[in-house]
Structure formats: structure tokens, C-alpha cells
């Protein structure tokens, strides 16, 4: 019953948001201190390169990745969720969490990042982060990377993250 109620609340809210253009609710979510780890991408393969090596080079390029970090706060009375993100500088942006099991650090995708009501979540090295996979260009310190964040309630929020060499 609780679940159904939640679902209905969500549906009504969504309808309201669609009606009001979501402008007001967007302000309940604030993104601060966004930065992206600097990364150099070696693009370009010599024309004479045998096919196998070219394929390998293509795979290598695809493997260039970086991560974005930020603080997301929620001033609202309802929890919100970051559902997905995108940027023009990478093929994909994944929501990831780095965890430490004993001495082994591993990274796995998460379905969403929940921002509690009246709370905040910090995406930081060694924890939650956005994984920018398949970088299309060098990310040099001082560059600004546009990021589009999609929240369950707040909708789409566009930010710029500064590239930093950690
Ligand atoms: Cu990751």
C-alpha cells in the first residue's frame, strides 16, 4: 500500500512537473565543486598500420576513460535520484561506485545515486563517481566539460565541470 501510494505521488508529481516545466523543482537540487580528472587521449593511427593493430588501437582508444566528481545537495523534502548522465566528450557516462573489499579495490555500476531529502551526497575519488568511458578528446587541466545530469524528480540539470590534475 505504501509502495502504491509512493508510486501515485510520483506520478502526480511528474504530471505537475511536466505542467510547470520543472523550473522550480530544479532548484532543490544543487551541484557544487564539479570536477573531472585530467586525461590525455592518444588519437590517430598511422595509415600503414596493419588491420589487427588498427583494431587494437581502436580498442585502446575506447578504453580511455576519466571520472567526474561533485557534491549534490537536495534542499527538498523528498529524496531524489540521479538516474543517468551524459557529456559530449565521452561515449558513455556510467554511475559507478568504488568499494574496498579487504585490500581489493573494485568498481561497479550502480542503478542510481540517491540524494536524501535535506541532505547531500559527495561523489569523490574512492567512492561514488561518474565514469566517462570512451573519451573523444584530451581533458586538459583548466578545460570545462559540460555534463548533463538526469534526476528522477528534478529532471535534467546541466552543469560544467572543471578539469583538474589530481
Ligand atoms: Cu568507475
What does this 3D model show about the protein?
The chain has three helices and ten strands, in the order H-H-E-H-E-E-E-E-E-E-E-E-E. It has 166 residues and is α+β, with helices and mostly antiparallel strands. The chain has a single domain, classed as Immunoglobulin-like (Sandwich). Strands 1, 2, 3, 4, 5, 6, 7, 8, 9 and 10 form a ten-stranded mixed β-sheet that branches. Bound molecules: copper (II) ion. Copper (II) ion binds at residues 67, 96, 107, 129, 131.
- CATH topology call: Immunoglobulin-like
Order of secondary-structure elements:
HHEHEEEEEEEEE
Bound molecules: copper (II) ion
Distance between the termini: 48 Å
- Summed up, the helix count is 3
Structural class based on helices, strands and sheet pairing: alpha+beta
Q: Uncertain spans, ≥5 residues at pLDDT below 50?
A: 16-26
Query: What is the CA-atom radius of gyration, in angstroms?
Result: 19 Å
| Name of the top-level CATH class | Mainly Beta
User: What proportion of the residues form beta strands (DSSP E)?
Assistant: over 45%
- What is the helix content? 10-25%
CATH homologous superfamily (4th level) name: PCu(A)C copper chaperone
- The total strand number stands at 10
What is the CATH architecture annotation?
Sandwich
Estimate the mean pLDDT confidence: 83
Q: Any idea how many domains?
A: 1
Shape: globular
Question: Biggest sheet, in brief?
Answer: 10 strands, mixed
